[in-house]
Design a protein that fits this description.
The chain has 247 residues and is an alpha/beta fold. It has one domain: Vaccinia Virus protein VP39 (Rossmann fold), CATH 3.40.50. Strands 3-2-1-4-5-9-8 form a 7-stranded mixed beta sheet, sandwiched between helices. The radius of gyration is 17 Å and the shape is globular. It contains 9 helices and 9 strands. Pfam families: Methyltransf_11. Keywords: Methyltransferase, Transferase.
């Protein structure tokens, strides 16, 4: 992530990111479905999970890469990762805008649930482009400002082109981490400016609803999710869009 304040947010004892994922089995499984759909049948020499916290997504990558590294700015999250991840996965403390990898050295980069902390992701996207090999691949998740429910709320007004901070006014303090949703057209342009192009997209966590999760069996939710991800991507339906990008 972009700076020390953002790392400090996840270092503090008040923020239990591992605990945050308890009760979010559907969201985790939906993201795993997306990762598998985008990467199945491909294999890489090395992969880096940028801003991966304690390694929730990093743990999925050894099936797709010979050598996997978690690059995370928070020392506390890295300490948790040391217990959560297999010993063969490397861990380095690093900001997403200053990654300690040689230019053109990484075949696969993932950056999941990081963009919503980046009101201006230009430096981070440029850094991903820098470290990727000429034919490298990245999977980047974007918190979608134009998801279906938001489009209904904003009917007749359109979707802002700039990121929108979704924190309540009382929680918007300069010393706290931003939480923004992005316009996908703007992100596509920013990726292009970094030298990256979108090859494929998936709409993810399409059934993210506490009410649905209480009444619909987990396996049924995931069956619908798996079937819907490609089709709903064309509508930019879901709150989370996974982008497969290349040079």
């Amino acid at each position: 992530m972009g700076d020390i304040k953002r790392a400090d947010f996840y270092d503090g004892p008040a923020h239990d990111y591992l605990g945050y994922w308890k009760g979010r089995d559907y969201e985790h499984a939906a993201e795993r479905i997306a990762i598998d759909r985008l990467l199945t049948g491909r294999h890489f020499a090395n992969a880096v999970d940028v801003g991966g916290g304690y390694g929730r997504i990093t743990a999925l990558l050894p099936r797709y890469a010979d050598h996997v590294t978690l690059a995370e700015p928070s020392s506390r999250q890295l300490d948790i990762a040391a217990r959560f991840l297999d010993k063969g996965i490397e861990r380095v403390q690093a900001q997403a805008a200053r990654l300690p990898f040689a230019t053109g050295s990484i075949e696969l980069v993932t950056m999941i649930r990081v963009m919503h902390h980046l009101p201006d992701p230009a430096a981070e996207l440029a850094e991903i482009a820098r470290i990727l090999t000429p034919k490298g691949t990245a999977v980047i998740e974007v918190a979608n400002l134009g998801h279906a429910r938001n489009r209904l709320r904003r009917l007749g007004r359109g979707i802002p082109t700039e990121p929108v901070d979704i924190r309540s006014p009382e929680n918007r303090h300069d010393d706290e981490i931003p939480f923004v949703n992005h316009n996908l057209d703007t992100v596509t342009r920013q990726l292009s400016e970094a030298g990256l192009r979108v090859e494929r997209s998936l709409s993810v966590s399409n059934l993210r609803s506490g009410a649905l999760k209480r009444v619909v069996p987990h396996r049924v939710l995931l069956g619908i999710e798996k079937a819907a991800q490609p089709a709903l991507a064309r509508m930019r339906f879901g709150p989370s869009i996974f982008l497969l990008v290349t040079h």
